[in-house]
Amino acid sequence: MSKTAGERIKFVRLHGLNKEFNQKEFAEFVEITQAMLSLIESSKQPLSYSIALKIEKATGYRAEWLIDGTKPTGLMNRSYEIRNPKDQEEFLRLISKTSASRYVLLLLSELSDSDREAVFLLIESLAKKEGDHKLRSK
């Protein structure tokens, strides 16, 4: 398939969605400038992770695939993935406060990306459930 990040983004823009976008439309859709999109598509500007995340959020194509071609190309299920680096940092900060933090981090590091994201979802779900329970008991 596409060999560069720019080629992959151009593929998404022209063939990867239900509509064929011109550069201006696609740039507005993913909330970047048309000039930046043009530079990235022509490989004159490297694709940053923050822009890749914007494109991922708008289109469902994974940031990692956009950047370096790592499969899978699309998000398996948006609800199973914590894509916001701040959410991941907060999760790791909370883990680091526990006495078992090294063990938990070791276990997480051995999981595949999709399994790790499923664990994050489970923990988020349990935390939300606990938060809802606390609200009801007040």
UniProtKB/TrEMBL annotation:
Residue ranges of domain HTH cro/C1-type in the record: 23-66
Alphabetically ordered keywords of this record: DNA-binding
SUPFAM superfamilies cross-referenced by the UniProt entry: lambda repressor-like DNA-binding domains (SSF47413)
Segments traversing the membrane: none
Record-level Gene Ontology MF annotations: DNA binding
Organism name: Leptospira inadai serovar Lyme str. 10
InterPro entries: Cro/C1-type_HTH (IPR001387), Lambda_DNA-bd_dom_sf (IPR010982)
Protein name (record): DNA-binding helix-turn-helix protein
